[in-house]
Automatic annotation (TrEMBL):
SUPFAM superfamilies: MetI-like. The chain crosses the membrane at residues 54-76, 88-108, 137-162, 183-208, 247-267. GO terms for biological process: transmembrane transport. It comes from Bauldia litoralis. Keywords: Cell membrane, Membrane, Transmembrane, Transmembrane helix, Transport. InterPro entries: ABC_transporter_permease, MetI-like, MetI-like_sf. This is Glucose/mannose transport system permease protein. It holds the Pfam family BPD_transp_1. It is found in: Cell membrane. Gene3D superfamilies: MetI-like.
Length: 276
């Protein structure tokens, strides 16, 4: 098992990085050209737009996923009636693939029969809401679909963390007259640090490799307004028949993942010291 993992994952990764320094086109070949592929990558407008979109989508997705997920978890933690039903409903979108989610929200946001059409049919003729057809805000249409699918999982992770908080802490806070919001901010959230770190890693890794949602909703359009790095890599490798350029893009994505994983690994393992 270990040997298989090393060959498939580590070997594949090294192979990709090595061939990103070649001029491979349809088939891989060891004709090294130095940093030429990376220079071409960062001089390509389509790649730059994809990075900008990923930063916007990633930043907002990270913030809203954590905030909405935690708020929903805090509400469910109040031992409300029908908690299991609400939890199932909120988690259900996560069971769907990104392709299905993208297609559903493509219909919902379609101005001809989606939200815009419904609101206008109610008499508000001036209402306009067509983010998937507006290059300036299309990335926010993708964000809505992404949050709808992923927030339920974040809620469940946060709820598990909240349920792990000792009930005596809540009782002590109430006895001391500490408002609930201060208890959450200054006591509960710091105690949930491992949950937050794990959640951040899950969200960030999903952001870097977002692909299915974009393909299903917009195919990168209008034009290239909703392009993302994963789609750029796929198109270069399988449609543009430019393996080296795709390898260069995937290597940059790998670096982005390492930027997330290495600090997490250090916080989780590197900072811990065994008692002597």
């Amino acid at each position: 098992m270990i040997a298989t993992a090393l060959v498939v994952f580590v070997g594949g990764t090294v192979w990709t990085v090595v061939y990103s320094f070649t001029d491979s086109k349809l088939l891989p070949r060891l004709n090294f050209v130095g940093l030429e592929q990376y220079e071409r990558l960062w001089a390509t407008n389509r790649w730059l737009i994809s990075i900008e979109n990923l930063l916007i989508y990633g930043t907002l997705s990270l913030i809203f996923s954590l905030v909405i997920g935690f708020v929903l978890a805090a509400l469910l933690d109040q031992k409300i009636r029908f908690e299991n039903t609400f939890r199932t409903i909120l988690l259900y979108p996560f069971a769907l693939s990104f392709i299905v989610t993208g297609l559903v929200w493509q219909w919902v946001l379609n101005p001809d029969f989606g939200i815009q059409h419904i609101v206008r049919s109610l008499g508000w003729e001036s209402f306009a809401f067509d983010p998937l057809y507006n290059a300036d805000i299309v990335i926010y249409g993708l964000l809505i679909a992404g949050l709808w699918q992923g927030t339920g999982l974040i809620m469940c992770l946060m709820l598990a963390g909240l349920r792990g908080i000792d009930e005596d802490i809540w009782k002590a806070a109430r006895v001391d007259g500490i408002p609930m919001w201060r208890t959450y901010i200054f006591i509960v959230i710091p105690m949930m640090r491992p949950v937050f770190i794990t959640t951040l890693v899950i969200i960030a890794s999903g952001i870097v490799r977002v692909y299915d949602l974009v393909v299903a909703q917009t195919s990168g359009g209008p034009g290239i307004a909703s392009e993302v790095p994963a789609k750029y890599v796929y198109d270069k490798m399988f449609l543009g028949q430019n393996l080296a350029q795709g390898f260069a893009g995937s290597t940059m994505m790998l670096l982005a993942v390492l930027v997330v994983i290495i600090p997490w690994a250090y916080l989780e393992f590197g900072g811990k010291r065994r008692p002597t």
